[in-house]
Specification:
Mean pLDDT: 91
Helix content: 25-40%
Shape: globular
Number of strands: 10
Strand order of the largest sheet: 2-1-3-4-5-6
Order of helices and strands: HHEHHHEEEEEEHEEHE
CATH superfamily of the largest domain: D-3-phosphoglycerate dehydrogenase, domain 3
CATH class of the largest domain: Alpha Beta
Length: about 220
């Protein structure tokens, strides 16, 4: 246990679980989308669904989708700011299954029409676990620099990616690969001890059978 387990993160309150965690899930969604959010359908599960207005979860999620940092006072006015920039959104209760009570599924559409679905849980003290990206069941916390790599499920792809990282002295803290079916699309999640520069991300993106690469900076804890 560290000090943040006791006093929580530096944030706009009132609740680390309902506010800080919600900002972080939305921030990861925005990063994975890779552009400004034009429209979002936000499905709230369990405690999130029953208390989101009183605990500011709605403002936190919209603030994260707008790109606000965790301690930005503008989060308090994020619903108004969303209207100012043309971000349309809706909140609705949903049964997302056997998941943590503080879980949200964000279906986001970007300004170019690109779409993404991200499901995340706020597990206390501002910490989160991302559980789903589109149709892939995944798991990462955002506490490390994280690469999210969509690729073909084919021999040699994982080896090529890890070889590039090794050649550039990037240490892998944890790695998982999730596939839709044998030989289909897959998502590789790599958490690293070092941040990865844009040029190295581009090098990975140009590898054969890699469809897309997103680098997500370690979330403030």
């Amino acid at each position: 246990m560290n000090v943040f387990d006791i006093i929580g993160p530096v944030m706009v309150g009132p609740s680390s679980s309902h506010t800080a965690g919600a900002v972080r899930i939305a921030a990861v969604t925005r990063k994975l989308l890779g552009e400004d959010v034009k429209h979002a359908v936000i499905k709230l599960h369990g405690s999130f669904a029953s208390t989101y207005k009183g605990h500011g979860t709605d403002r936190a999620i919209i603030g994260g989708l707008l790109g606000y940092k965790l301690d930005n006072p503008a989060i308090r006015e994020s619903l108004k700011h969303a209207g100012d920039v043309g971000l349309e959104y809706s909140f609705e209760p949903a049964d997302l299954g056997d998941v943590h009570p503080n879980t949200v599924l964000i279906e986001a559409t970007g300004v170019s029409g690109k779409k993404i679905k991200v499901m995340g849980c706020s597990v206390g003290g501002g910490r989160i676990i991302i559980k789903r990206i589109d149709n892939f069941q995944v798991e990462f916390t955002g506490e490390y620099f994280t690469l999210v790599i969509e690729h073909m499920d084919k021999p040699g792809v994982i080896g090529a990616v890890t070889s590039v990282l090794g050649q550039n002295l990037i240490n892998i803290a944890e790695m998982r690969d999730y596939r839709s079916y044998r030989g289909g699309s897959a998502v590789m999640i790599i958490e690293t001890d070092q941040e990865i520069c844009k040029s190295l991300i581009e090098q990975i993106r140009n590898l054969p059978d890699v469809y897309s690469v997103v680098g997500i900076e370690a979330l403030e804890i």
